[in-house]
Amino acid sequence: MAAESGTVPDWKFFQVFGEEQADSAGVEEIQEADLLSALDFDETGDYFATGDRGGRIVVFERAAAEKQPSSSDMNHRPKGAVSRAKSNAQYRFLTEFQSHEPEFDYLKSLEIEEKINAIRWYRGSMGCKMLLSTNDKTIKLWKIYGKKIKAVSNMNLEPSQRNGCTGAASAALQQARSAKDLRLPLMSTCERVVTATPKRRYSNAHAYHINSIAINSDGESFMSCDDLRLNLWNLNVSNSCFNIVDVKPSNMEALSKVITSADFHPSHCHTFLYSCSRGTVRLGDMRSAALCDSSMKEFDEPEDPANKSFFSEITSSISNARFSRDGRYIVTRDYLTVRLWDVNMESKPVKTFPIHDHLRPKLCDLYEKDCIFDKFEACFNHDGQYILSGSYQNSFHLLSCEGKQDLVLEASQTPHRRRQQNARGRFAGGVNAAAEPIDFSRRILHAAFHPHQNLIAVAATSTLYIFRA
Predict the structure, then answer these.
(1) How would residue 306 be classed by pLDDT, with cut points 50, 70 and 90?
(2) Maximum CA pair distance of the chain?
């Protein structure tokens, strides 16, 4: 149930899939293959999928109402009652399949992990759903559909008598005195199952690790992004693609930046963005040139010299950049901050949200633990009023784009348990850093908003939480 306009949504626990981890339990007890690595809702919000490090994809669907109201009931129900009933419907397991297997590149002596790096839903047809998934090297298009399993019924013999021409079978046939006693066997549906079938495989186009994929608004193409190149694919053609951005220098020793993520504009099929490890976001237009190396716009905010440190180059690397659903704003996430940009203003961000400022004194320890390289995601809600991004200690941030109160919640059945407001009216990391040590192994890297409602899905290690307002 969405919050009224002008009020702060009251987020509550809704569902959980997987085993909840106690505060004292360590992530070491979880198998690495079970750690969630990707998450995405489809355009209707009735389906969402998760991918893990073991190469598996699990699909969930929103359960239909237990009892469909009659037409007379619908006429007497107040406006919005039907939508509220739908928002109260829970998600349930639909199907699970193995998307990628571990491989080995013999030419480069390189092991290719089965880990799912990104998932994107594609508009299907005739009741089926389409899903794009990728690991480091290969993108696959999956068709998810219901399949009927049929069996022969209305037989003349009982199941115990169908073992060939036995004496019992012969005796049963002899008892048929006329043609009226014989029954015609029928094919009937005995079971309905949901299955996933690979339709296309897009491979051999990336020399470096694929970090993101994005579906174009034209419904016919998608973009794949690795460390140095962006490729544009037609969904119906798997053996060729077009290179639209290439930042690879002629001499690799002169390499100064890599591409970290990419996204398509939600309504302009020719406009896209990509983020770099130097803390910049570039906006490209495919109408201007075949190779869009010279960006249309560049969004960059120089770092404050007072905050500059030995680790600034690492912490300023943008791990994720996304358009808002109306295409007007861009959200970027680096290790320490979330920034909100207006597409029409390149000089500075509209807002800057310090997420991990309390970790600045600990950057050296985080570097030694490799935590400083964690890649957190960020995304907008359906109306662009809030930004969702993860943090440590199983906490996640809900940031208001309109200056309302920002929230830090915990991925648990009691999401408000660790909320502690400081004197400035903001929340510091979801925990009191001075009173409680931070568990850096329990982190939320992946989270997603429902496309039409105030409902969020959060991946906490191997457990999936759903919250609603």
Answers:
(1) confident
(2) 101
Tokens of 23: 């505060």
> Could you give the count of Cα atoms lying within 13 Å of 214 in the half-sphere of its Cβ?
27
Both tokens assigned to 411: 């991925």
CA distances from 100 to 53, 133, 222, 236, 459 (A): 10, 9, 19, 20, 20
Residue for token pair 């019992």: 168
Q: Say how many CA atoms lie within 13 Å of 219 toward its Cβ.
A: 5
Residue 93's alpha-carbon distances to 59, 113, 411, in angstroms, are 6, 26, 20
CA of residue 163 relative to chain centroid, distance: 51
Q: Which residue type sits at 168?
A: A
pTM beyond 0.70: yes
- Please report how many Cα atoms fall inside a 13 Å half-sphere around the Cα of residue 409, on the Cβ side: 28
Place of tokens 């929230």: 407
Write phi, then psi, for 371 (nearest 5 degrees): -70, -25
What 8-state DSSP symbol labels residue 464? E
pLDDT digits (tens, 9 = 90+) for 186-219: 777 777 788 899 999 999 899 999 999 999 999 9
Beta bridge partners of 379: 388
Rounded distance, CA 238 to CA 224, Å? Answer: 13
